[in-house]
Amino acid sequence: MAKILALSSNPDRQTPRQALRARTLSEAFPATFADAAAPGLVLRALTRESRPVLWVQDRLSARETGAPYMLRAQGGPEVLRVALSRPADVLQAMEDGLACTALSAVIGEIWGNPPALSFTASKRLVLRAERSALPCWLIRPGAEADLSAARNRWRVASLPSSPHPDDRQAPGAPRWRAELFRSRLARPGTWVVAHDGAADRLDFSPASGDGALGAGDGTDRRRAAR
Amino acid sequence: MERWARVMERTGAAPPDDLPVVLAAEGSHGPVVHALNRAARLSGIQTGARVVDMRAICPDLQVNYADIEGDRRFLDWLRLWARRWCPWSVSDGDDGLILDTTGSDHLFGGEAAMLRDMEARFSGLGLTAQLAAAPTWGAAWGLARFGPVRAICPEAALAERLGPLPVKALRLPQDTLLLLNRLGLKRIADLAAIPRPALIRRFREMEPECNPLLRLDQAMGRLAEPVSSEEEEAPFRAICRLSEPIQDPTPHVPELCDALCDRLEAAGKGCRKLRLTIYHSDGEVSAVTVATSRPSREGAHLLRLFEGKLERINPGYGFDLILLEALAVEDLDETQNRLDGQPDDALHLARLIDRLSARFGARVVTRPAPRESHLPERAQDWVSAMAGPPGDLADPPTLDRPVRLIAPPEEIRVLYAVPEGPPAQFVWRRQTLLITRYAGPERIAPEWWQDRPGTRLRDYFKVEDHQGRRFWIYREGLADDGRGGAPRWFLHGMFL
Known about the structure:
A: Rossmann fold, 10 strands, 26% strand, globular, disordered N terminus, B: alpha+beta, MutS, DNA mismatch repair protein, domain I, 4 domains, four-stranded antiparallel β-sheet
């Protein structure tokens, strides 16, 4: 019991904003597959850099959720895209990308739970990402949260956008509901994340109406992960 | 003409022999006849005449465009091919080759036998060749075009052989020929009979290549005109000959790469494309080709590109020869590292692109290239990353655009309050989505300069559904635009 208490009072816990920008492997599970929330949050979580982002997609996720579009004109990073068919190739390409120092991040999209994406494969990605200190994201539409070595695991859903300043009818700035359900670095929780376009900053506020989730420290889950 | 006929035969579109065919080139007053076949020549068509005039003479004339650039490349290739007879060869104009066979004719059994051998080999390529052997370039030129078949002219008989030929055989331009014609000089013998001082005085002002006296001297051997043959560039290659067949080429590739890179470095070059050819002991040949996105001569990097490709070669009974050659070679200067000792980012990125392209194919590694177009799917093009970074537009659009684009757009069924307005709900992939908020429409008209006629305009709406998901949907056409039935709706993208 004392051990668990010591774990939960770990002094160098990160804030969720830091966890979102951690230079290691993170996973993002979209709540519904036809949703740009997960790639959107990932895009906004990346720090602005001139170096390009390697974006690897497998065939199913490209067909079902589309391809990145006009990111550069919307304040996003430059993209080097690799469109592959097999999930095993996606993992291989991501590992190649993590060995390269000229990238600012590596993003992979793998549909579902293919056998190639095992615990070992995710562990390899974690080790490579931490060695080269690059943020690495695995976006997994249509997937169950199975066993994985990812340091942070997020579940992302769209929320109704904030009101448009000029037009009550129109959707305004995007908001997401981000649930950090397993993490080595930060305290798990659920937040409403809004993107402040002018300052390029992510605003975290506790999810309203669901206090139990927001305040939960996730101690029991953490024990399972260790 | 014959090269064109060969190509047409290969594609199975060769015209029958009795159909007059000409190849046309652009002239200053419309297309002119560049080359013609036998049927066309028999029906009175001349080279250099305008195609419209020749159509009047021969109404069933078939006209194709000549590939002049391709002809030049082919002649250049032919020049190197002709080195089977002698070590020095140059191309002469657009349709001739000059071979300096001094001292090499006895290898083929004398000059006459050599000319016969040449004619046979050219006809093996599907080409007719008019050949002549003469002591000077000018004499060979004239005899090949205006002399007898396979003319051989010894040094002593030069004046006697060239005399009866027309002055055209002296490689003179059209206006000089006209001038000589007006002077009544029809044959070379007429020109040679005139005293030299008179000719020098008359043609003093002329350019060297228009001067008939100069050309006459060159043909007669009184003025030297050497054949300055261009050397073929030595290919960059490294060969590994094995004393007995082996099953796995992998241990030999690093030293081949290093040897090739040493040679490239000595020449100040880098390669864009590499081919590893493996000769099996049973006569089979297999090859692996890799490419790089910028010139490179680093052994370790080039070696990594072959990773995983050598295992796919079926060893059979083993290999006994491994050949590594650089196919596309470009200049590559020494580059200095940055001050902190690290090579620059662009180099690392190029290496990553090389590795990914070598492993997965060059088509799948792409970068977005912005295009000047209003249609969303045309505004961003994916180009191969091997082609280098695509340029940015001068003024990128600042419109509200989605971050994901679905290609092709997926059709949705909608329920709307008014036909011109936004839908109230829609069904997409068997899910019913209720629309709570919307922005739009943004009307994007078809691009008439590249769309086919009848393409309908699009009204785009940015909508948000009850779960907060933001989509980009459009209506194709209007209810009464007269371009098809009721307008259809599509889902095209997703916003942040």
